[in-house]
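Sequence in, structure out. Go.
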Amino acid sequence: MADEAPVLALSRDDLRAVVGYAVACADPAPALFEAGSPGDRRARDAVEVARVFAEGGERTKALRDHAWAAHRAAREARDAGLTAASAAARAAADTCGAAFLHPLAKATQVRHILGSAAHTARALELAADDDPDAATGHLTKARHLADATVVEILKRYPAAPPGGGRVGALMRDLDASLRNAPTNP
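Output:
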């Protein structure tokens, strides 16, 4: 079929680089989530499980289980009106989801690479009373966290897709800046 996406080369080391980047971008997320949901470790545990994979661990069911737990935490926080905590939990879920980046050249896969950074930026923005400077500051940090390997992997995929509300806009901003900037060694 003409609309099938090409299959990309994607090694275990590539996945670890992407997950390591997602973990670094999500660094503020567990504390932001716990500020709204004290004692709830689901976001923190998701980031930790992803960190283990990034540092050489196996890609196990634990990544999926913790991603789903963080998604449930995000939904519960949203339903309780805790918007910053909800976005932070989504960032944590996306750190685990990064390990499941598909080797298909589809724009939707960019979320596996940049979703953690975009959701963390949104969580920081919401925690700062919707101050866009908080999100911009985090995206600047995320640009510096992306090494040449992460940028090269990102460039294998089409640009981030339209839609996705504010998080989608943040993701597209980060995507464009990473594709157009010189890479960090």
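Check: The first helix runs from residue 12 to 25. The radius of gyration is 15 Å.
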